[in-house]
Design a protein that fits this description.
Order of helices and strands of chain B: HEEHHEEEEEEEEEEHHEHEEHEEH
CATH class of the largest domain in chain B: Mainly Beta
Helix content of chain A: 40-55%
Number of strands of chain B: 17
Distance between the termini of chain A: 82 Å
Oligomer: heterodimer
CATH superfamily of the largest domain in chain B: Immunoglobulins
Strand order of the largest sheet of chain B: 2-11-10-6-7
Helix content of chain B: 25-40%
Largest sheet of chain A: 6 strands, antiparallel
Chain lengths: 669, 322
């Protein structure tokens, strides 16, 4: 083990420690996506190097360093098979940073580590949309810049505070420039090249099957599914059904989703008013997009409509996305129901639910027409003692029979399921639709919040002449039979009092306000794109904005910011004009100038004093004393109290006496 | 690469010299004489920023783009601050210094900061010699550069450089101060000939031993360094202050160090011998000494100023006049 050579550029323990801290802070946000052995290696490298440095030793030998580096990078490649993509790239960078710190000997090495820290900060932001993460990483980069300021050659008296302030000031100067660049730099719609998608997260929200009790679990969650902002009119509450998975396959207990084909053509002709809105979806690891019945146009090029009216896209939703959709609440079918679909949506398991089949047969005999039959089924829910509850009794394999004849207590899933089974038993094509209904209006920012507790299930039945028609059997349950605590929810259109309408209104107001901020952050910052730039230019009063005009505005903005920056920096540099000593000095110089002795701009007080002594011996003593006193006040190490006042008073009293006599003498001579 | 770099630097220096002419010291560093280029780290960071921006655009990550732009802006602002670190600094220098060949010429520079911001890590460079200083608000710093000088003669530098990479080391700002710095390099003491006075009058040695009362000129107070044999021990013994006897003849008989007394030696050897004689005369005895070399005669005297005057004459011997 050799001792470190004491050179001028060798790092100190303190510098190494602070750069290590910055690296660790940047690695923290990547910790979950990095292999454990990699974190351990980096931590060990940092710890060993710090321990060596604290004892005054140099970095480990070159052979060891290279051996460790090659081995670690090889293992990483064997594990990941690629260094492309954010996760793999971050892993490689983290490793390289750790290894670099391991071999750090000079300040140059720490500069390299700093560059990697900056890049790790960025890599964390590529896949995140959190405001707090941005704030955290800006703080980390600020600390890193502060550490870079510490890598100076000359010793510094009062260290960290001053450096941190200076780094913050540079950051403050950078902000307006960054803002202009960010606002006006051109944006592209799609990615420049495909990148491997990140790890798959957990599925949330509605799944593509529905068993009794599934939606009940969701109803207790106040997690947000998506947010909707209507552009223009808002549809009435009775039309706000957000369509999710459409379920066809029933095994007597569970509804499942059969393979859905891409809709071949426009099966539905829109009628009635259209509504424009933007759905801001939270990642849920599903591939469907919740849209208002019935979606007509949308701005996602890879999304398509299935034959049963679901809006889906090929990729799973692993990042928050925003989709602009136009929907029509009323549609007319343009083609009759195909035989295949009719067969699929009238199928019931043969051996299950015999009592329900019996009931259906009875009702069908009384109501041969489809609409009459449907109303009769709804009447059952309306008139008989069915209850709406969040805690329904468990059901067995003949779930429909048990619910209709025994328990009669259920949640929306039970009603939708039983309704569909009864209609299918009568030969009416029926399917169960799951999705969200209602929602909470955020009056602070004019949008709707759909949380998991707004999950709902309803039915669609094919009525000849009307096509697929929506029926919501849950709403047939009389409000008087809603379980205590849930009252009011059905009548108002929103079925259930979510966490948003808890008794403490100030609390829910605060939550709504906070959520409004989140939504604004998402709409204004995260989804800022070329259209937003064009809108911004329009609001600046520039007509017909296009790329060229955006570029021109950016140029003008940059020029303005640069002028501001130059002015700011020059302004900072000027000595404080209110400094009384400086003002007195100015006065002294003016008095001497009036006596024919102007200080040259490059002349310091001491030099000036010498010249005065030579050119005007009569003034030399008094003026020289004052000038030297000024020099001592300004540049001297210690200042006696009262010295400044003495100087100011003397300058005020100072009169370059004998100007006339001096001129006279010169005239005579 | 290195050669290309050296040529480029020489070009910039020459261009800067033509552009600004000779500076009148002290000089205040103004805007148009400060040059600035990115360092290797600055270039690496620029490449990194482009990568950041492309990554941000590719992932359509507005936060990533924002961070990349924030870093890019920080770099641009750092450039301003690096430039500002030199701007308005007042610099002064001692233009002419004396030195001995084989030792260092000590140049002194003064950095004065009359602005309201600290100046950190300002390098003063002359040739390859560098010193780094920070100058706090309203303070000045004296900087000494020890430039090794190997050969006797007059060494000249037409400019010196102020340089800084503060704040982050991403940029290097520098300025050339066009001031002729001259080092008069006296020959290193050499040769082994004794002082001419000793050889010319070896008989006088006995006389100086038997220095009588008639030479005694009075007493003056003792200062360290005076030979103890001149101490007025009697005065001290009587309880008076420490004093030394002063002899009237010590100031009377000047010693001439002659070029012509060194016949048969080449020029540099002669100069070295003279340099040694000057050193010996200054330390060895109390008599004034003068030198006579072709074209120059310096009348006898004593003390550091006189010594350096003589040595400068030796340094300038045979050098083209400026």
């Amino acid at each position: 083990m050799k001792l470190a050579a004491p050179t001028a550029t060798r790092v100190t323990y303190e510098q190494l420690r602070w750069m290590s801290a910055c690296l660790v802070l940047a690695l923290v946000v990547h910790a979950t996506s990095l292999p454990v052995w990699l974190l351990a290696t980096v931590a060990a490298a940092i710890a060993i190097r710090l321990a060596l440095c604290a004892r005054g030793y140099a970095a480990p030998s070159r052979a060891l360093r290279i051996g460790v580096a090659v081995a670690a990078i090889a293992i990483l490649f064997l594990q990941l098979h690629t260094f492309n993509g954010v996760a793999a790239g971050s892993a490689l960078l983290s490793l390289v940073a750790g290894l670099k710190l391991f071999e750090t000997e000079s300040r140059r090495d720490l500069h390299v580590v700093a560059l990697i820290v900056y890049f790790l900060c960025l890599a964390a932001l590529l896949t995140s949309e959190s405001f707090w993460l941005l704030a955290y990483l800006l703080t980390v980069s600020w600390l890193t810049s502060t550490t870079l300021l510490r890598l100076t050659h000359s010793p510094q008296a009062n260290g960290w505070r001053r450096n941190a302030r200076y780094a913050a000031r540079i950051g403050a100067h950078a902000l307006p420039l960054a803002l202009v660049l960010w606002l006006f730099f051109p944006r592209f719609d799609g990615p420049l090249w495909r990148v491997p998608s990140g790890a798959r997260g957990a599925e949330t929200g509605l799944g593509d099957t529905m068993s009794p009790g599934d939606i009940t679990d969701l109803a207790l969650s106040d997690e947000i599914a998506f947010r909707v902002r209507f552009q223009g009119a808002t549809p009435p509450a009775a039309e706000r059904y957000w369509r999710g998975p459409v379920l066809h396959d029933f095994d007597g207990r569970t509804w499942g989703r059969s393979v859905a084909f891409r809709s071949t053509g426009p099966d539905l002709a829109p009628s009635g008013p259209g509504y424009d809105y933007v759905v801001s979806l939270e990642p849920n690891q599903h591939n469907w997009i919740f849209a208002l019945d019935w979606p007509d146009r949308w701005n996602l090029s890879d999304a398509y409509l299935t034959s049963d009216g679901m809006l889906v896209r090929p990729a799973l939703l692993s990042h928050p996305i925003d989709v602009s959709i136009t929907s029509h609440t009323h549609v007319q079918p343009t083609a009759p129901l195909s035989d295949a679909m009719r067969r699929r949506d009238t199928r019931l398991p043969e051996q299950r639910n015999p009592r329900s089949r019996e009931l259906a047969a009875q009702l069908r005999r009384a109501h041969p027409d489809d609409l009459g039959y449907v109303n009769a089924v709804l009447d059952i829910f309306r008139r008989q003692p069915f209850f709406y509850t969040l805690e329904p009794p468990p059901l067995g394999v003949n779930s429909i029979d048990e619910f209709l004849f025994d328990t009669r207590r259920g949640f929306c899933g039970h009603y939708a399921s039983a309704f569909a089974a009864l209609l299918r038993a009568a030969g009416i094509p029926t399917r169960v639709v799951t999705g969200y209904h209602g929602g909470t209006y955020n009056r602070f920012a004019d949008y709707w919040i759909l949380s998991q507790s707004d999950a709902h299930a309803w039915d669609e039945a094919w009525i000849e002449g009307r096509g697929w028609t929506r029926f919501d059997p849950t709403s047939a349950v009389a409000p008087g039979r809603v379980e205590p605590g849930l009252e009011g929810s059905l009548a108002s259109g929103a079925r259930l009092a979510g966490p948003w309408r808890r008794p403490l209104s100030w609390l829910s107001d605060a939550r709504l306000q906070f959520d409004a901020l989140r939504q604004l952050w998402r709409e204004r910052i995260l989804r800022f794109d070329q259209r937003s730039q064009e809108r911004l230019l329009s609001s600046l009063g520039i007509p017909d904005p296009d790329g060229e005009k955006i570029a021109m505005v950016m140029g003008a903005g940059l020029a303005l910011v640069f002028i501001w920056l130059t002015w700011q920096i020059r302004h900072e540099q000027r000595p404080d004009p209110k400094d009384p000593v400086l003002r007195a000095y100015g006065k002294l110089c003016r008095k001497l100038a009036a006596a024919g002795l102007a200080r040259r701009p490059s002349e310091g007080a001491e030099d000036f004093a010498r010249r005065v002594a030579i050119e005007r011996p009569d003034l030399g003593a008094r003026a020289g004393t004052l000038l030297r006193r000024y020099s001592r006040l300004r540049y001297g190490a210690s200042r006696r109290p009262g010295a400044e006042r003495w100087f100011i008073a003397r300058v005020r009293a100072f009169k370059p006496r004998g100007i006339l006599s001096a001129v006279k003498e010169r005239g005579q001579g | 690469m290195a050669r290309f770099r050296d040529t480029a630097i020489a070009r910039i220096r020459a261009w800067s010299a033509r552009r600004h002419g000779v500076d009148d010291l002290p000089v205040k560093i103004e805007r148009r004489r400060i040059y600035i280029v990115p360092t290797w780290f600055g270039l690496m960071l620029t490449a990194l920023l482009i990568a950041m921006l492309v990554a941000g655009l590719n992932y359509s990550s507005n936060l990533g783009i924002a961070f990349a732009f924030f870093m890019a802006s920080t770099v641009l602002v750092a450039m301003h601050h690096c430039h500002r670190n030199l701007l308005g600094l007042t610099v002064d220098a001692k233009l002419e210094v004396d030195a001995l060949a084989g030792a260092d010429a000590l140049f002194f520079f003064m950095l004065r900061n009359e602005s309201a911001v600290d100046r950190r890590d300002v390098e003063v460079r002359l040739d390859t010699v560098v010193a780094t200083r920070s100058v706090a608000i309203g303070c000045y710093e004296e900087v000494m550069l020890a430039v090794p000088v190997a050969h006797r003669g007059v060494s000249r530098w037409n400019q010196f450089e102020l340089r800084t990479t503060y704040p982050f080391g991403w940029f290097r700002a520098w300025t050339y101060v066009q001031a002729p710095l001259t080092a008069f390099v006296a020959p290193a003491p050499g040769g082994n000939r004794p002082l001419p006075a000793v050889t010319a009058a070896s008989g006088q040695a006995a006389r100086s031993e038997s220095r009588g009362e008639e030479d005694f000129a009075g007493l003056r107070s003792y200062t360290p360094g005076i030979p103890l044999k001149h101490m007025a021990w009697k005065t001290l013994a009587r309880g008076g202050e420490a004093a030394v006897r002063v002899y009237s003849d010590l100031g009377a008989r000047p010693e001439w160090l002659e070029w012509t007394s060194l016949e048969g030696l080449d020029t540099e050897t002669r100069l070295s011998q003279l340099s040694r004689w000057i050193a010996e005369s200054e330390t060895g005895h109390q008599r004034p000494y003068g030198i006579r070399i072709p074209g120059v005669e310096i009348p006898p005297g004593r003390g550091p100023a006189h010594r350096w005057r003589c040595l400068r004459a030796l340094a300038c011997h045979g050098m083209p006049p400026t």
